Amino acid sequence: MIPPQPTRTVGKLLEPIQIGRVRARNRVLMTPMTTRFADADGSVTGQLIAHYEARARGGTGTIIVELSSPHPSGAHRRREVGIHSDRYIGGLSRLAERVHRHGALVGIQIGHAGAHARPDVTGYPAVAPSSTPHTVHETDIRKVRPRPLAKDEIEECVGWYAEAAARVVRAGFDLVEIQGGHDYLIKQFLSPLDNTRQDEFGGDLEGRARFGLAVVAAVRSAIGSTPISFRYSVDEFARGGFSRDDGVKLAPMLCAAGCDLISVSGGSANATLTPSTNTTPMAYPPGLFVPLAEEVRRRVTVPVAVANRIHDPVYGNDVIAAGKADMIGLGRALLADPDWVLKVEAGQLDRIRPCLACNTCTDHLKYGRPIRCVVNPSLGRDAELALRPAREPRTVAIVGAGPAGMAAALRAAERGHRVVLLEEAKDIGGRLLQIPRAPYFQSVRTAAEPFERLVAYFRTSILDDGVEVRTAVPATSAVVQELRPDVVVLAEGARYPVPGLLRLLDVPGLRALAGIQRFRKVFFKLLRPRPTTLIDELEQLGIATRTAGDRSGSRGVEAAILSGTQTADGIE
Q1: Which CATH superfamily is domain 395-569 in?
Q2: Could you report the per-residue pLDDT of 355-377, keeping only the tens digit for each?
Q3: Taking the CB of residue 272, how many other CB atoms lie within 10 A of it?
Q4: What is the pLDDT of residue 551?
């Protein structure tokens, strides 16, 4: 549950803030998330530029471009943005210029993956402070046992960071962020679970922090007064790991070394709280790292940013107003809605397309695909799914108000069509409202609130855009014909061949069984298209019909919303 919200105040969130020598127009910071939109060799592409430009156009104050390794040996994923050679400067300059065009600051996150860099991805042996193995999911799952770095190699690695930072500043970036958390090399030095060295780079906090502090100092020397952000897991949430006490003590050490912004995160692959701690899924409360940020902020004089499911602007504003942080970091929320800030500025909080915290975005990455979002089919498809006004407005009847039907109705209305949405149930939403009955949605435990919020978003948006919604209306050919539609979109969804099968999920033992992935796949495969004679009847009446929806199982919502959007785009 989101904390109580006595007011709908968002003013603090929209105030400008000074970060070192630069000034951000508001306190919303886009945190880095890998996209795989770069070219195979790491070059900037038009798709990558369009992705970040959309978030800048949408009002975000500060954008931190995704993790990029200072050396090829440190790439965590294929198609990471390249910064390890001067040949990338031209593309990076184009990216920075396009973000600046819309008034946003732009930075880039620099981080070597260390033991989280697989040799089959990088072409180099994996290195780390110690030989502690890491399990890395990149298309498939493999265990990496790194080679411990020698002291001269550590110094060389520090130099890579400095050279990469200077390179991106030459490309026109406003700030540089150093990745010091999650499962990457600096965090591996910081964590006693990864770092078992007996020399000056191991042991107590001072020793384990030596590498990270050396990186900050070298970057500061290389880029002069350009601001440095340091993002790290203030608490690893793992027994024997980098602790909250360690994280709070490290903050003033980072500032003394030259940091202008502390970006608070948490967790690692070792976390006992949840394996997805740094991208907390829907069943966990928002703002998990806010208490960490509050403690860090007491110890430093530079701004402190905090992220992790602070998707509600009122809650984010309250965090800042209470002095618990100075900036709010948004990652998944800006994937779901690039216009998040513009809608806050306009007071259209109910029109913000909500992130489900379902981690579909990170799941796509793990399995080798470009990043995608369940609720935002335009992510990564900015050119393909750019909103185009209809050449000629039509009357469109949409049958079924599940995810495909609602998406089709909203998109058709946005394009200028007159839309009537018919639903035989008493309310819209379809199976979205039944999903929480299952123990899992895709790879995370379910919760009701995100799906309720998504249905509320569709309801508000389609009504605001003039869609006529008729519920408790069975869509017969006679009902449809009365509307005199030019086009009918059938988005009736799917159903189980045995009525009431979904009630099995209310039985405790069977609900637990449905948590097993293999059983879950079988359960979803039982879905069948809804049998209907409506298509034949309408075609006999000379009415054009289209179908929208998907029954692909646990990814059906994602495919249904995409299908509804694409179907509406095809109506002219």
Answers
A1: NAD(P)-binding Rossmann-like Domain (3.40.50.720)
A2: 999 999 999 999 999 999 999 99
A3: 12
A4: 54
Higher pLDDT, residue 8 or 232: 232
In sequence order, the 6+-apart residues with CB closer than 8 A to the CB of 366 are: 137, 138, 139
DSSP designation for 371: P
Indicate whether 3 pLDDT > 90: no
Q: How far apart are CA 393 and CA 391, in angstroms?
A: 7
Is it the case that residue 306 has pLDDT exceeding 80? yes
Question: What tokens appear for 543 in the block?
Answer: 């009415």
DSSP code per residue over 440-509: EETTEE--HHHHHHHHHHHHHHHHHTT-EEEES----HHHHHHT--SEEEE---EE-SSTTGGGGGGSHH
Question: Which CATH architecture does the domain made up of 12-355 adopt?
Answer: Alpha-Beta Barrel (3.20)
Residues annotated as catalytic (active site), given as ranges:
184
Interatomic CA distance for residues 228 and 370, integer angstroms: 28
Look up the pTM and report it.
0.93
CA distance 336 to 487: 29
Closest CA to 29 of 333, 302, 297: 333
Domain coordinates of the chain in residue numbers? 12-355, 395-569
